TrEMBL record:
Family as reported in the entry's similarity comment: Belongs to the tetraspanin (TM4SF) family.
Statement: the UniProt record of this protein carries the keyword Transmembrane helix: yes
Gene3D superfamilies: Tetraspanin
Keyword Transmembrane helix: yes
Domain of life of the source: Eukaryota
Bilayer-spanning residue ranges: 6-26
Keywords: Glycoprotein, Membrane, Transmembrane, Transmembrane helix
Entry-linked SUPFAM superfamilies: Tetraspanin
UniProt protein name: Tetraspanin-6
Membrane topology: Multi-pass membrane protein
GO cellular component terms given for this protein: plasma membrane
Protein localization: Membrane
Amino acid sequence: MLKLYAMFLTLIFLVELVAAIVGFVFRHEIKNSFKNNYEKALKQYNSTGDYRSHAVDKIQSTLHCCGVTDYTDWTNTNYYSEKGFPKSCCKREDCTPQRDADKVNNELIGIFLAYCLSRAITNNQYEIV
């Protein structure tokens, strides 16, 4: 019985290892796929509550960001031309952002710059050796 448990545990470990390797190898494709799908969801956004719009609202409110790279991504959408920024772009709970850019979240730029910095540090670490 203990050997069977060890075999299943090893199998689970190997599956996780393969998933990690595949994720690392295809990280650029995965990143581009997420970006393209998010841009598409932004362009098709409406406030009626379909699953894409709900996902965009959830992402923006959870990550405290607005748009794909920043809030200016919304200016190319039909929703912005009709109603302005969505409520999920708000910095505060009780705001109605409409078209005021100073009331929306733009923290995603900081997250992106932190990612670029960590990537540059990682790349330079191997050049020093």
